[in-house]
Specification:
- By secondary structure, the protein is an alpha/beta fold.
- The protein has a single domain, classed as Rossmann fold (3-Layer(aba) Sandwich).
- The chain has 9 helices and 6 strands.
- The relative contact order is 0.19.
């Protein structure tokens, strides 16, 4: 069964697209991956993959889709089921229909989070919606993914402690550091796993491996009623 990974966050600038492209590209080294770019008008994932195809000849099945509406996203996900091993969805920085469809149909939702108070507040504002989605999508596993994390700073230690106490969401064990390699790889149409930065390569390999292990342990998701998905999406 195809497994769906959604990157969801209310706040912009938290690294959703960077993480989505790295995740999709790294997994595509050994699996069939569809990358769905819902982040209009930036479409960062689309630019990244076009750069990748223009500059390199990489033996991979990594295809990009750009649905125009959340209804189109729902139809696309239905169409792509079983055509790919994994689907990665890059959602926009708001809780709109795209993000809500992703919550309803994803097996794993990653919530990129830095250690600023504003980013923690944005996830806190999502908690009621995540709770509602989990009641409808029994397979939904939503987890915090610490990004641009500087463990040596006082603010990172304090805010991460606050987040654990206030958000009460499970976290991915692997934290992604603040590294130039991520922005450089994005500009070059690469993943950091394809760069010379050993620390970044180890991070994204560890994260991708953890994600695949989590997904492999999940039971097959039950088929979601389209009306339920659309009803939840319309609340945005």
């Amino acid at each position: 069964m195809t497994k769906i990974i959604g990157f969801v966050q209310l706040k912009g600038g938290v690294g959703r697209s960077t993480l989505a492209t790295n995740m999709a590209g790294t997994i595509a080294e050994h699996a069939r991956v569809a990358l769905i770019d819902c982040d209009s008008p930036q479409f960062t994932c689309s630019h990244w993959l076009q750069q990748r195809k223009d500059l390199y000849e990489i033996d991979e099945q990594l295809d990009l889709y750009q649905p125009a509406t959340y209804k189109a996203l729902l139809k696309l996900l239905q169409k792509l089921q079983n055509e790919y091993d994994y689907i990665v969805i890059d959602c926009p920085p708001r809780m709109d229909g795209f993000s809500r469809v992703a919550l309803m149909l994803s097996d794993l939702v990653l919530l990129p989070l830095g250690t600023s108070a504003a980013e923690i507040w944005s996830v806190e504002a999502m908690l009621p919606i995540l709770n509602e989605a989990s009641q409808l999508n029994s397979n939904l596993d939503a987890r915090i993914l610490w990004n641009r994390f500087r463990s040596y700073t006082k603010s990172a230690k304090e805010n991460s402690s606050t987040a654990k106490k206030d958000l009460k969401l499970p976290e991915m064990r692997q934290k992604i550091g603040l590294r130039v390699a991520y922005s450089d790889a994005m500009a070059d149409g690469l993943t950091v796993h394809e760069t010379n930065d050993k620390s970044a390569r180890a991070e994204i390999w560890s994260l991708s491996s953890s994600v695949l292990r989590l997904l492999s342990k999940q039971k097959a998701a039950r088929k979601m009623n389209d009306d339920k998905v659309l009803s939840f999406a319309k609340k945005s």
